[in-house]
Structure formats: C-alpha cells, structure tokens
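Q: What changes when iron/sulfur cluster is included in the input?
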Amino acid sequence: MSAENKLPILHSAFDFHQPPAPELIDKCVHCGFCLPVCPTYVLWGEEMDSPRGRIYLMKMALNGAATLNEKFVSHFDSCLGCVACMPACPSGVEYGKLIEATRAQIERNYHRPAFEKLHRRLLFATFTHPARLNLLRWPLLVYQKSGLQSALRTIGFFKLLPKSIAAMDTLLPPVTPIEPVAPVTFAQGEKRRRVGLLLGCVQRTFFSHVNAATARVLSAEGCEVVAPQNQTCCGALCVHAGEESAALAFARHTIDIFEQASVDSIVINAAGCGSNMKEYGHRLRNDPAYADRAQRFAAKCKDVTELLAELPPRAKRHPLQARVAIHDSCHLQNAQGIRTQPRQLLSQIPGLTLLEIPEPAICCGSAGIYNLVQPEPATELANRKATLISALAPTPDAVATGNPGCLLQLQSSLANSSHPIPVLHTIQLLDASLRSAPLASLLFQ
Ligand code: SF4
Ligand code: SF4
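A: The predicted holo structure follows.
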C-alpha cells in the first residue's frame, strides 16, 4: 500500500485506502428488515449493534462525524460478519464488503489496547500456520490425556483467567491421530473431474479425518483429487478480522499453488474458507499481476456439497439409520447461498432422517476468531443454538454442519448441555454411507 493511501481523507475518520464505498452505504434505506436476523441485535436490541446502525456509523466516520474510538470500534468488533443481513435486505446492501473495508480501516487507524493487540497477534500467528498448529498437537494431547485438563476444569481454574483465554480451553477439540490426504487420490471408475482440495489450517490439524472423508467421497464419485502439500492458509481468518495485507499474501500464494495443480475446480470443505476464496477476484481487483487470475480462480471454487450436487450420484449409498439435525453455517448459507445442496446429499442416504433447527438464520457464535475475541456473546449464541437442538423431537443422533468453526462451537456447547449430541461434518455422513460404516464409528474420530 502506498504512503499516500494511508493519508486520512479530509474530514474523515478513514484513510484513502479503500474506505467503505459511499455508493454501497447509500443503498441502505433504513427499512430495518435485517434487524430480526442480526444475532447481536437479537441479543441486545441496540440499534448501533444492528446492520442498519453499523452502516449509519460507517457513514458518520466517512463524513468525519464520528472518530475511530473505543466505543465506535466496539460496535464493529461485536459484529459476527455472519452476513445474515444480506439475504434479508430488499435493497441489496452488500454489507459483507462494507464490514470488510471498515475492519481493515480500524486495524490500520485504531490503536488497540496492548493485551488485546497481543492476543490477536498470537491468534493469527498460530491459527493461520498449520505447521505451528501441528507443533501444538503433542503438548495438547498430553494436556488432555494426562487428566490435567479435567483437573483444571474441576477446580475452576479457567474462571480465574480472562474469558478470551478460557475460551481456548472450552473450544479445544479432542486431539486425534492425523489421517493424511495423499498428494493425488485417483478417481474410481471413469474420471469425471480433476479437483484440487483445500486442506485448511484448523481442518488439517484437528479435523484431518474430515479431509480424508472428503477425498474418499470425491474419489468414489469419479473425481481425481489433487491436494497440494505446500498450500498455506487461504487468508479467511485474516480477512474477516481486517488484517488485509496478510490476507492478500495468503490469497496470492493459494492462487499460485492451485494454478500449478491444473484442476477443473477447487473444492473446499470449510465454509469460511470457501466464502473467502470466492471473493479473491474482488480482493485482488487492484493488483495488476493477480486481478484476472484471481477472477478465474474464484470462479473455480466450490464447496464440496456444491460440487457433489452437480454430479449425478454414482457410488452406492448404504443405509445409515440416524436422525440428523442440519446446521447451516453462515458462510455457506448467507455468503455462498448454499442451503439445498447439503440437504440434497444427506437425503440420498437411505435410513437418514433430516431435522431442521429453528432460527436457521441466527449464527452459532463461531464466526472465525469471534468466539475467541468476543467469548461472551459467542457463548450466549452457542447456548441458544444448543437449546434449540436439544429441544428437537425426536432428539437427533447427530448434528451435521459444513464448517470446522461451527463444529467446534456446537460441539463445545452441546457437550455442556443436557443432551451431548455429537456434531459431524456433512461429508463424514456421506462417507460413512458409502463405506457402509455405522454412525457410532464416526463418534470417536
Ligand atoms: S454480519 Fe451478522 S452480526 Fe454483523 S450486522 Fe450483519 S447480521 Fe448482524
Ligand atoms: S434491510 Fe438493507 S436497506 Fe433495510 S436497514 Fe437493513 S441494510 Fe438497510
């Protein structure tokens, strides 16, 4: 970014570098149709914690009527970026672009308190680097298996720590053996597609069995699966938190890697990553070396359920006797408009009964690093979702979702509820059906 871009706009709280676009802000007609689906408005009923209020604040900052102070920033930090407000908006306000631009402005022009800054740095330095996450596996395994974790929980040790630190323990999934995905998995039968598989950061480290299941299902459905081993983070966590430079560097690297793989499509099984990668064309629009390539790359990106729904089923589906509640990840249903495809795939499994969870538009509170930096509203939203799931009749045997963040969030809230219902990735259920494996075999992965 040039030094000129960092200069403040005259009479504005924002700098020159891609402030929230006035023409997008002005599309908001203040009708309020978005309010009932906004999780923070539902929790607190505060206008400034609604989409309409936040857009108003953006306009004030743009015009110099508001400054980037602690109060102003708190209304944007509390936004989950779930973009439930977008499908609800009759005027087509592109809130996703507005919040992304505002967050990048905040990170450049607002000085966060030292602890908060350090905490965020630590999260980005860890969660966006699979090799570093991998190094943590052994200490975390010892922590879980030695009984130290349960002892510390029993004596209430985490109540003494800041909530943002305690949340890391609450959300920690059981550390299980890594199931690697081969650099190339050949298609079974006649090849229908050659696809690249995004391995993800948290997915690769803590849910490697989900990646392995994805490769098996794609292969069984006639796809050759290429999983470049040198791929890095796609930048989703950074972009959702306003860390623009890091996000763009990850995007460029991801494009380079998958271009070398010469694939028809790039398949993603983490909704947050998928929604980010589909926006690469917009993000890199001002980069002459990448703008066109980013457009072409984004057009190839597909959620795994989206790709499979395009292919007439080929592999035999074996019965799976299970009642499965489906949880739509916000980055799948709102950002990518994908709701029917996961249902379509699960409906192909004989014996499986699908259950719908009330309030599908309301986020579970995961939202990238939101549950680690805003643990209180995140927990409130997770408990609200867990209550709705537990109250379903008949009680589900499992919850299916399409995003590792939602999986962690729901797993942790349901584990503490009266109904510790397991949470699985949608693709695990399809994989179990193809392998004729019982539901119980998935529960300890
Ligand atoms: S992104 Fe989600 S939390 Fe933020 S304003 Fe829109 S609906 Fe509300
Ligand atoms: S629904 Fe759209 S136009 Fe109406 S207040 Fe919300 S963002 Fe503005």
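Observations recorded in class: DSSP finds 26 helices and nine strands in the chain.
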